[in-house]
Design brief:
This protein is α/β, with parallel strands linked by helices. The chain contains 5 helices and 14 strands. α1 crosses α2, α1 runs antiparallel to α3 and α3 runs antiparallel to α4. The two termini are 14 Å apart.
């Protein structure tokens, strides 16, 4: 439940609905979950992934959820991968993750993002990227190979990332390079937002 709560707070934040809300209780979180299940395609995609990940070892359910994802979804996120709480898909179209990717907490992924393989390259069998906490992957970003992206990183639109990115960085370009430092004033951390809200029932 904590993960689902973090997910709904992430999408609420992206829609600027919780910036001035200083107190969120259990009832309001439930209302947000129900609201976003109806109005937010991105949240439905996240919930489908969460259910699929929880059922990944139950073959009949996994098959049914996989079919649902293929028929009705415009993202390809394998149920086997690990994604931390606060996952947000503001515009969930044409998004593809390779099966050995790993994402941390409060990662936002915009349309057209690919986390893919660099054929012939792997680290102990891992072909996908490891992405840290509080990372934003802007529209059209391509992350190629078994690289590591640190915490608090913003990757600019249409960048192609082929090497490791240090924490607290803003990167852009083809190939992507560091062009600045991440600061809380540029993109307030969802962790700070969550910490400022009371989750008491």
């Amino acid at each position: 439940m904590n993960t689902v709560t973090a997910d709904v707070l992430a999408i609420a934040y992206k829609n600027a609905l919780s910036k001035k809300n200083n107190h969120i209780n259990a009832f309001s979180v439930i209302l947000l979950i129900l609201k976003y299940l109806f109005i937010s395609r991105g949240y439905r995609e996240v919930i489908l992934f969460r259910i699929g990940h929880a059922c990944r070892n139950i073959l009949p359910l996994k098959v049914i959820l996989f079919i649902l994802q293929n028929w009705f979804s415009s993202v390809e996120i394998p149920f086997s991968i690990e994604i931390g709480p606060g996952f947000a898909l503001p515009h969930p179209y044409d998004i593809v993750f390779t099966y050995t990717s790993k994402l941390g907490a409060r990662v936002s992924v915009y349309q057209g993002v690919t986390i893919g393989n660099n054929f012939g390259k792997n680290i102990k069998g891992r072909v996908g990227a490891i992405i840290g906490d509080d990372v934003t992957l802007s529209a059209g970003v391509k992350i190629i190979g078994p690289i590591t992206i640190g915490d608090k990183v913003i990757i600019g639109a249409n960048s192609v990332v082929t090497s490791d990115i240090p924490s607290n960085s803003i990167v852009a370009g083809i190939p992507a390079r560091v062009i600045g430092s991440y600061t809380e004033s540029i993109l307030p951390s969802l962790k700070a937002l969550a910490d400022s809200m009371s989750m008491s029932e």
